[in-house]
Amino acid sequence: MSLININLAVSTVVIIIVFILQYIFRMAPCEMCLIERYPYYLLIIIGVISYIFNQGNKPSFKNISNYISLLILLFGFFYTLRHVGVERGLINLNSGCNINLSNSSDKSLLLESLTQAPLIRCDEPSYLLNLLSVAEANLIITTLLLVISMYFIFFKNER
Questions:
Q1: Are 97 and 118 in contact (CB under 8 A)?
Q2: CA quadruple 17, 22, 26, 30: dihedral sign
Q3: pTM for the complete prediction?
């Protein structure tokens, strides 16, 4: 099995699972969770493009796809690591992903802050089976894909 096939299969399964969590189990994602899906979308697109355009098993196309996939997974790893840090309170996120009511002594400012606050905050994790958060599960999956990708590219010489 090639690296592109593994990335395509795992990414497709992950996206199906998050849609099931979101639409069937009503676990609404935060802003960071939505961004964490982008690497999986890109890996799916790379996998489909590889199947369409790699008819002759061109090694250069395979190399480029593998290295782009590795860069995408690196981005996904660091972004998800940041999200886990925000959930655990290790990183203070000053964005629209959380609510700051410390300077809200005026009622109109408080009301405005509340109306602009996101419904789902990034610093409040959604847990799977009360064991680990969705972001932590994503970090584990991304780390495994990253390790597998590095193994295929650097040790199995699938370049």
A1: yes
A2: positive
A3: 0.82
What are the structural domain ranges in the chain? 3-94+121-155
Per-residue pLDDT 10s for the chain (159 aa) are 789 999 999 999 999 999 999 999 988 888 899 999 999 999 999 999 988 877 656 667 788 889 999 999 999 999 999 999 988 888 887 655 655 555 556 667 666 655 655 567 777 778 887 889 899 999 999 999 999 999 999 988 755
Residue 127: strand pairing partners: 133
Question: 128 pairs with which residues across the strands?
Answer: 132
Q: Which residues contact 31 (CB under 8 A, 6 or more apart)?
A: 95, 96, 97, 118, 120, 122
